[in-house]
Amino acid sequence: MSVGTVTVATAGAPVQVEDLRREDLHVSVSDPAAASMNFLNEVAGRFPDAVSLAAGRPYDGFYKAQDVDKYLQIYRDHLAASGLSAVAVDRTLLQYGRTNGVIGDLIARMLAVDEAIDVPGQAVMVTAGCQEAMAIALRGLCAGPDDVALAVEPCYVGFTGAARILGVDVVPVPEAPDGLDPEAVLRVARSVRESGRRPRALYVVPNFANPSGVSMPVPARRRLLAAAREAGLVILEDDPYGLFGLDDQPRPTLKALDTDRTVIYLGSFAKSVFPGARVGFLVADQVVVDAAGRRTLLADELSTVKSMLTVNTSPIAQAVVGGMLIEAEYSLRAANRHKVEFYRRNLRTLMAALERQFGDDPRISWNAPEGGFFAVLHVPFEADEDLLEVSARDYGVLWTPMSYFYGGSGGEYALRLSCSALGPAQIEEGVRRLGKLVRDRSS
Amino acid sequence: MSVGTVTVATAGAPVQVEDLRREDLHVSVSDPAAASMNFLNEVAGRFPDAVSLAAGRPYDGFYKAQDVDKYLQIYRDHLAASGLSAVAVDRTLLQYGRTNGVIGDLIARMLAVDEAIDVPGQAVMVTAGCQEAMAIALRGLCAGPDDVALAVEPCYVGFTGAARILGVDVVPVPEAPDGLDPEAVLRVARSVRESGRRPRALYVVPNFANPSGVSMPVPARRRLLAAAREAGLVILEDDPYGLFGLDDQPRPTLKALDTDRTVIYLGSFAKSVFPGARVGFLVADQVVVDAAGRRTLLADELSTVKSMLTVNTSPIAQAVVGGMLIEAEYSLRAANRHKVEFYRRNLRTLMAALERQFGDDPRISWNAPEGGFFAVLHVPFEADEDLLEVSARDYGVLWTPMSYFYGGSGGEYALRLSCSALGPAQIEEGVRRLGKLVRDRSS
């Protein structure tokens, strides 16, 4: 995401009565993650020739704008084939529509084919990207100031940012080298309760997490589900990278293993279709019971929140994603084979390049993710913004300080390296430049 | 907007340990406006032959899905003509993009042509519909629990709903027959300050308001700007109906009259392009000063909030609206002549039909809006949900209880009548049926 703050032409002029004071604005305006991303974008802008091992976006080369026309037409034909008149097809795409969206059934079918997740289409809410899904789930679950969310740390900044907008406190659960430890979740939940607050939700990325690249072993996933039940937590499972494992070994999502409706699954099409659709979704098949004993689906209850944030997700954007799902016969895994191969080669290239640069140096270490877009490099010096500036200017390489992904201290001696937006040759060149920086700093 | 709650198949079963209690969810899930809209949708579903004077959506007949293809192509050609390579055009539409959007310059040009609003493109943030613009502006301005928003009452439910999600208190300012009274705004702001809280924002629809149809005279608009300055309020001006006046008399927006950057303008393309794009915008050209004296544009500061809600607005949807603006040579007024004529005829038809039905009855009155989609009928009996049910079942006509648009009491003896979604013959038939109901109830 790109967050730009540009000093306006009036800089240096005296403060006018009509000016607003930044300290009077909501704390989310000054989100530290956004400030960090601003700094990163700004450095990248000043050193355009630096190789970016910071950018976590998908590779540009897969995108053809003509795909938009094609998918739109496929979805229109699908509506017509299902019996809608031409007028009704037009209305579906261009008029206001159902708050929870029109492609929930197609998404449920994809989840059954690709992930063995068995949920009705009605439990799916289509959102303006996965970011909105996070905000809606958090808002629905956290009712008051004493309701807190637990989150793996280091954590994707979009989650902590959404919580900040809603005024929901986030309590970190430290991530172990093999992912979230269910015992640690229980410990943190217990201490939250002892402080008089209520732990309501737990945010986790079980597959190839951003930023750490770490994945949870399957037995730990089962234990995490049991721990969440015990602690009264609803798990918010975010899975944007699940398709992109280094091998075809099955990695069941928490939702696929979830026999007790403990998990709200947060889905993204940004990597599997394209980011510009801004279509994501959540699966909330939990039953909600009111005081009169009336039972509803959580997805339906959350539709009120959705309606007051964005009314509904653009049906044009939904149609693009729907057309892609239909063409793919509901298997994103099958349709994304070429992307999977590309990202596998990139991650292997990154690993091999790190081994070549740092394999002989016992002071340097890195993890070996089983897939995804990210890995973490540990160094014997502080990897802060000052060093990032030096790295961009004098060494021509960008990376992300891991400290960006911690609420307090943490990550000071680590770099997040991304391998999604580059080709293999650029990755090798980037790591070569990084090697020079690290050697100069470690010597 | 359609908000559906469906009782799931497990109704009647005992509460399971895994079920969630509705009372544990956030209060916004139980938004009374959403419950009201649910009731209205549910009644409409049970009586499909009832004429709906309740539906405030734009008329379906203007929509052709082929327009989407056409506008997309125009926008792509525009990017290519401005020097972008084919790869860069693809990237603009399909990759992540600038948080505040890519068509801000086109929107600024439209505002200059149509509304004599002179702002730089950088002050425009493109949003996922006007609803998100409201939420972002409110979030940015209201920093803590003591920061409250003032809003005209009766009020569009989307505004109060967004405030509820964010935990921002809304204090009503009663609407007079000729719109918001600047003196009343000052009075309410003063009493808020006396209660130890800070009035930060004022929500108002100066042109043909939803639900009342009321417009503010131009001198009152100028006085409202002065009152807002005096009270330290930022005005949130919502203008979804401004194009649809009964005549061509100029009705300057508050933003066009705003010499002191007192107004954040909230824009919608739902009526002037189509709702399915889900593209809206806000104009925030206020200067923000931080503790170090650094000056930025409020639109840039608010981009952090936008990035944590929806990352950015779908560039595909932006391209559709951008293509329409280019084709219209930046004049929505000119491009919407046929829609303007249609809605004028509808409103005149509604007024004439009301006169025919109720002109002889001194107990019945209604207002005469200068444009827009809505008018209010005052009756000598309670127009509540029970009566709405009777009206749909026994008289075949739907309307909206005005009480839906009040936070507490108010509107009990009034109906909102909408004339946007129907043709003239249906409007006449709807009012004829309403006449029978009103006569039966008043006799």
Task: Please describe what this structure looks like.
The structure is a homodimer of 443-residue chains. With 443 residues, the first copy, chain A, is of the alpha/beta class. Helices cover 42% and strands 15% of the residues of chain A. In chain A, the strands form 4 sheets. Chain A has an 8-stranded mixed sheet with strand order 3-10-9-8-7-4-5-6, with helices on both faces. In chain A, strands 13-14-17-16 form a 4-stranded antiparallel sheet, with helices on one face. In chain A, helix 1 (32-46) packs parallel to helix 14 (385-395), helix 7 (182-194) runs parallel beside helix 8 and helix 13 runs parallel beside helix 15 (424-442). Chain A is globular. Mean pLDDT of chain A is 94; it is low at 1-16. At the A-B interface, strand 1, helix 2, helix 3, helix 5 and helix 6 of A face strand 1, helix 2, helix 3, helix 5 and helix 6 of B. Strand 11 of chain A pairs parallel with strand 1 of chain B.
Tags for this model:
homodimer; 443 residues; alpha/beta; eight-stranded mixed beta sheet; four-stranded antiparallel beta sheet; globular; disordered N terminus
The number of distinct β-strands of chain A equals 17
User: What are the low-pLDDT stretches of chain A, counting only 5+ consecutive residues below 50?
Assistant: 1-16
**Main sheet overview of chain A:** 8 strands, mixed
Principal-axis shape of chain A: globular
What separation lies between the terminal Cα atoms of chain A?
Answer: 36 Å
Helix content of chain A: 40-55%
Nearest-angstrom radius of gyration of chain A?
22 Å
Q: What kind of assembly state do the chains in view correspond to?
A: homodimer
Largest interface: A-B, 112 and 113 residues
Structural class of chain A: alpha/beta
Strand order, biggest sheet of chain A? 3-10-9-8-7-4-5-6
Q: Mean pLDDT across all residues of chain A, rounded?
A: 94
Hey, roughly how much beta strand do the residues of chain A contain? 15-25%
Helical element count of chain A? 15
